[in-house]
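STRUCTURE REQUEST FORM
Protein name: Pantothenate synthetase
Source organism: Kibdelosporangium phytohabitans
Requested output: structure tokens
Priority: standard
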Amino acid sequence: MTAPKAPEFTRGALHVLSKPAEVTRITRALRAVGTKIVLVPTMGALHAGHRELIRRARNIPNTVVVTSIFVNPLQFGPNEDLDRYPRQLDTDLDACREERVEIVFTPEREDMYPPGSQVTVHSGPVGDELDGRVRKGHFDGVLTVVNKLFNIVRPDFALFGEKDYQQLVLIKRMVADLDMDTRVIGVPTVREPDGLALSSRNVYLSPSERESAVALSAALSAGAYAGRLGAAEVIKAAKEVLAAHPEVVVDYLELRAPDLGPAPEQGEARLLVAARVGTTRLIDNTGLRMGEPPEPGL
Ligand SMILES: Nc1ncnc2c1ncn2[C@@H]1O[C@H](COP(=O)(O)OP(=O)(O)OP(=O)(O)O)[C@@H](O)[C@H]1O
Ligand SMILES: CC(C)(CO)[C@@H](O)C(=O)[O-]
Ligand code: BAL
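Status: completed
Returned output:
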């Protein structure tokens, strides 16, 4: 039997690959000639937030950008939106071409989880808090697929959005705890002009829900502004904004340290919110400084 022919790789062209072994072989060959590999994992339905990740990936010198598009079933609970999650591969490939991505990895479910696969990553205590309290097992699913993607692609760098802040913290934790050889880079959240964080799930919102959804980012801004007054004032200010939108059903509003430990009284902190607007669940967060005295002269 003759071995399957190796797919050609042409610098500057878009290669759409679905088989993990093909991706591993090409990225290994590129690394062997000194090229760095940058991975941008996504679930598709690409928007300006994803494009920002890709642009930052491309700006790292001497790299080939790999974007993965895979709606990972392992991170969806039984009552979540796995079946109706937006899928638009052709449009996504156009976006990747425009952003000069060179490899798009689009595996099928069976490529990632062939029959018999059963070992997963456990995300630890932080994975059971915040979003993990509502989405049981979600972060085990995220870390398992990210671990697999890292093993397939062996990226030197991987970029993730701060919009999914708990996910970013847990991926950094996994890389440190499991001695993985990839540098994880967080990218600030890209927003609509009114503050709403871009998210693939925003397409689910009706026009009136879209108006209500701005309450999340508005609450975070109000909370961040109150940082120097202390934790209680941060939460109070954010809650006041949310209370004006009873149609926005809050899952959690929490002030934490940047590593998601207990909130500090001074210095950097993170304010995180999750809420349902109609049937759509949205998340958002912001960095803030706690307990800073007012600037001199103010
Ligand atoms: N507004 C945004 N700004 C920056 N990065 C983002 C933004 N939205 C998503 N990302 C990042 O893009 C990557 C892929 O995310 P994903 O494909 O799940 O998109 P999403 O818009 O977050 O979708 P969902 O609506 O399902 O949460 C993640 O690292 C995520 O944090
Ligand atoms: C990181 C990720 C691609 C893993 O499926 C997903 O959780 C996402 O899109 O944020
Ligand atoms: N953007 C995080 C992926 C998820 O919500 O499942």
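Reviewer notes: The CA atoms of residues 161 and 187 lie 5 Å apart. The mean pLDDT is 95.
Form closed.
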